[in-house]
Specification:
heterodimer; A: 270 residues; alpha/beta; 5-stranded parallel β-sheet; 3-stranded parallel β-sheet; B: 69 residues; mainly beta; 5-stranded mixed β-sheet; 5 strands; 41% strand; globular
Chain lengths: 270, 69
């Protein structure tokens, strides 16, 4: 067999399809917390992602009218822009924010819904998330939803028509990694739409673990933006997501308590 | 032309009576930028900016995309 014949070369193994559109990477990245827009762009490009999250905020009136715009650096023609509702603590604000985002992006319906519970944990407020998801879906949005890792509420969101279920692995921006792989596995097992770990990934091994569990993708921001070298970390995350996916598809060896020699004992020279 | 008082992104802002949203955007130097605008939390489509006239006490919100996760 030659390298080119290896199954790992099959690109479809690393694609992600959301709401009928296929992307070449299972990694989704945020654009917050970077030094400047150029560093944002460089990290986004290095990550190999096709989907980039942004947030919606008031324009500074009368100030810096010529200042560069984020969308000049990550243009909608090059990436799928995923507007989020970061900072929203109730359903009404989240719905309004995404209606504004849809108008800003020329009618684009894909969105990331996150309704937060409190400032300390940024944990999702699930009753408000469910309420907002229902309103947005009725209004024609394709809703990717940040949620708790509760399989029952994840199922409710899927049944409602969300196009991706995005449970947190640990608190947003905490970098604590995958804290409850068992709950994530329950959600992955029961869900027909993509399951994307959103929040909590701290380094490449966390992304690989998420993918080894069988996630369809990983969404991250701080892990790349706040690395000492964001561009290199973006490369590491790109590789980790692919490595984790390959490991999942390969199927890991069973764990065993006893050692088992890799070299045969027969013919041992003494 | 009479002046009216509107609220623009949370702050009081003077505007000419009967000014359109399109004219307000131009005056603010924001023409051609990637924006969305609401009046009293109703999203106004870009195609309607030129025929939507502002009234006193209208709450205008103009937003754009910034970095976020």
């Amino acid at each position: 067999m030659n390298l080119n014949d290896l199954p790992a070369g099959a690109n479809t193994d690393h694609q992600l399809t959301i709401a009928g559109k296929t992307y070449d990477s299972k990694l989704l990245v945020g654009t917050g917390k970077y030094k400047d827009f150029q560093e944002t762009r460089d990290a986004v490009v290095a990550s190999g992602t096709g989907i980039v999250t942004v947030t919606v905020r008031r324009v500074n009136i009368g100030q810096h009218q010529d200042e560069p715009n984020l969308l000049d650096f990550v243009p909608p023609g090059e990436f799928t822009i995923l507007p989020n509702t970061g900072g929203c603590y109730n359903a009404a604000d989240a719905v309004y924010t995404l209606q504004m985002a849809r108008e800003m992006l020329g009618g684009h319906s894909l969105c990331k819904l996150e309704v937060l519970g409190d400032e300390k944990t940024l944990f999702p407020n699930m009753p408000e998330t469910l309420k907002a998801a229902e309103t947005l879906i009725k209004d024609g949005f394709d809703v990717m939803v940040y949620c708790s890792d509760d399989p029952i509420q994840a199922k409710m969101l899927e049944d409602m028509g969300c196009v991706a279920i995005m449970p947190l692995a640990s608190l947003i921006g905490s970098g604590m990694g995958i804290l409850n792989p068992w709950n994530l596995s329950l959600i992955i097992e029961q869900t027909q739409v993509p399951v994307i770990v959103d929040a909590g990934v701290g380094t490449a091994s966390d992304a690989a673990i998420a993918m080894e569990l069988g996630c369809d993708g990983v969404l991250m921001n701080t892990a790349i933006a706040k690395a000492r070298d964001p561009i290199r970390m973006a490369l590491a995350m790109r590789d980790a997501v692919r490595a984790g996916r390959n490991a999942y598809l390969a199927g890991r060896m069973p764990r065993r308590f006893a050692a088992s020699p890799s070299s045969p004992m027969a013919g041992l020279i003494t | 032309m009479n002046a009216i008082q509107i609220e623009l992104n949370g702050r009081p802002h003077p505007a000419d009576a009967n000014v359109t949203l399109q004219e307000l955007v131009a005056k603010l130097g924001l023409s051609g930028k990637s924006l969305a605008i609401s009046i009293n939390r109703e999203v106004i489509k870009r195609s309607d900016w030129s025929n939507r006239r502002l009234k006193t006490a209208d709450r205008i919100e103009i937003v754009h995309a910034i970095g976020g996760g």
